[in-house]
TrEMBL record:
This is Carbonic anhydrase. Reversible hydration of carbon dioxide. Gene3D superfamilies: Carbonic anhydrase. Its cofactor is Zn(2+). SUPFAM superfamilies: beta-carbonic anhydrase, cab. It is an enzyme of class 4 (lyase).
Length: 242
């Protein structure tokens, strides 16, 4: 076989990357077909009800990380959670950025009337690791700019914790980031107003991928407590004033 023949054969055969991309897409489509033919018919009544209206009771803001599945870990059904996800479960402070997160918050609070907003961080978060190692973001200027909203958490950890290494810093940074994003959340007028009149409650959680445990921020105690059903549910909402 001539070199030319070999080249044209190589060009027509799918590359390993293309084959693996095909397999990944096939798995997603097969999953959809399974849902469509097997799962959907079992819950047809629910989907009929949801076809024209939604009334979720809670908004769930979490990281885009593929290992976090809000409906799975809260055993929720379609229609239960209004979910917004982004790198690092960030909530930009009001007025700084009229982007997707701010829009979703305003819509959830004012149009849907959700009663709870949960901000959920997680273990082994790549965004938190990047906050600790900003050099890793040199080729990702958009991610770098976005994670400036988590800068306050990094300063908190650097100045207040005597962490020996990244392994020690990561869980504390992850918790501090959730607290920082709760503070940003409170700068949104729709949120502040409904919290002040006792119609909206905010929560800060951290989910552990390996154990499935959740810790929730207790604003009164200023620390995260296990969400294990043995205590009252910790809340991050200040007292209502109206
Ligand atoms: Zn993450």
């Amino acid at each position: 076989m001539s070199d030319k023949d070999k080249q044209s054969l190589a060009a027509s055969a799918p590359s390993p990357e293309a084959e693996s991309a095909d397999a990944a897409l096939r798995q997603i489509v097969d999953g959809f077909l399974h849902f469509h033919h097997e799962i959907f018919p079992q819950q047809e009544e629910l989907f009929k009800k949801l076809a024209t209206a939604q009334a979720p009771k809670a908004m769930f803001i979490t990281c885009a990380d593929s290992r976090i599945v809000p409906e799975l870990i809260t055993h929720s059904s379609p229609g239960d959670l209004f979910v917004t996800r982004n790198v690092g479960n960030v909530v930009p402070p009001y007025g700084q950025m009229n982007g997707g997160v701010s829009t979703a918050i305003e819509y959830a609070v004012l149009a849907l009337g959700v009663q709870h907003i949960i901000i959920c961080g997680h273990s082994d978060c790549g965004a938190m690791r990047a906050v600790l190692n900003p050099d890793s973001l040199e080729k990702m200027p958009t991610v770098k700019a976005w994670l400036r909203h988590a800068e306050v958490a990094k300063t908190m950890v650097h100045e207040n914790c005597n962490c020996a290494d990244e392994k020690e810093s990561m869980p504390i940074l992850t918790e501090e980031n959730v607290i920082a994003q709760l503070q940003h959340l409170r700068t949104h007028p729709s949120v502040a107003s409904r919290m002040a009149n006792g119609h909206l409650f905010i929560h800060g959680w951290v989910y552990d991928i390996e154990t499935s445990e959740i810790k929730a921020y207790d604003a009164d105690q200023g620390r995260f407590l296990p969400l294990d059903g043995s205590h009252p549910i910790p809340v991050a909402t200040p007292k209502a004033r109206f």
